[in-house]
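Q: Is it fine to ask for two folds in a single conversation?
A: Yes, each is treated on its own. Send the first.
Q: Here.
A: Result:
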Amino acid sequence: MTYTCSCCGKVHDDLPDLSFDRPGCAADVPEEEMDARVKLNEDLCVVDNEHYFIRGVIKIPIHGYEQDLGFGVWVSQKKESFETYLNNYDTPDIGPFFGWLSNELGFGGRKTANLATMVHFQGNGQRPLIELEESDHPLSVAQRNGISLDQAWVIVHDYLG
């Protein structure tokens, strides 16, 4: 199975990582208010100087496949945790910190925004790993138990669709 990359326009054979360019609440800010209300780069976001987010990766194991399905997502953080990460962004020696998943993946037909997570910092220039709190939510179950390669491609095509 293949997909066409939205960034480069080329057809690829490997599973892509899927990602969000901002947390859901930043996406809800009207474009004309964006500069005044949102500070955003590839890894950090502050909305209205009171809502703090970091970007990380949820990895879903794929049975019998060497690659995980990755979701680049945003997770809320307390101001203190956000500042700790900001001041120590390239070390695994902080955290893990609690946060709420701040993107809507619609995984398994259920909402994902506001699922409880733990953020595990890796250092070495890598984004943090996001671990979902154990629950019966399909995304949490998939992170714990893995999915088939066919399921992964369905998710990719639905997301890119």
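Q: Second one now.
A: Result:
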Amino acid sequence: MGLFDKLKKNTDTKPNELTSVIDGIVVELSTVNDEVFSSGMMGVGVGIIPSGDKVVAPGPGTINFVFPAKHAIGLTMDNGAEVIIHVGIDTVNLDGKGFESFVTDGKKVKRGDLLLKVDLDLIKQAGYESTTMVIITNKDSFSDIKLEHGPKTISDMIISLIKS
């Protein structure tokens, strides 16, 4: 078993942890420049100021939906968490430009599977922010949700869930 296999096996054995969906700096949701997210109206989670262009699955689960503009994906994780990954602020207005989806509704995914590729330059040139939100929409299903902040890569844990 190679080093990559050991790392992959290690992350797959932590079902209550969600890893970063994109390389970047993880920030508190309250600092995100969109009141729907920053107020906690959608749920609890984090914002990520991306430095990478690949959006990956934060753990094993099933794709519930890929928004037609490809800027948002909903998943139900195997650990019961309902997650929305929302790339950018008001990027729905791009109508799919700058986004390439690699998944469809109902697809089973593993931690690290490629969900989207994002053209961060196109988003910026169009005048939008690329901050990516990872939101747990069913927070009441968990007695505690711990969030990590700071620079993270797609293999780093950002959310730890404790079942009610």
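Q: Anything structural to flag on that second result?
A: Two points. The chain has one domain: 3-163. The longest helix spans residues 3-12.
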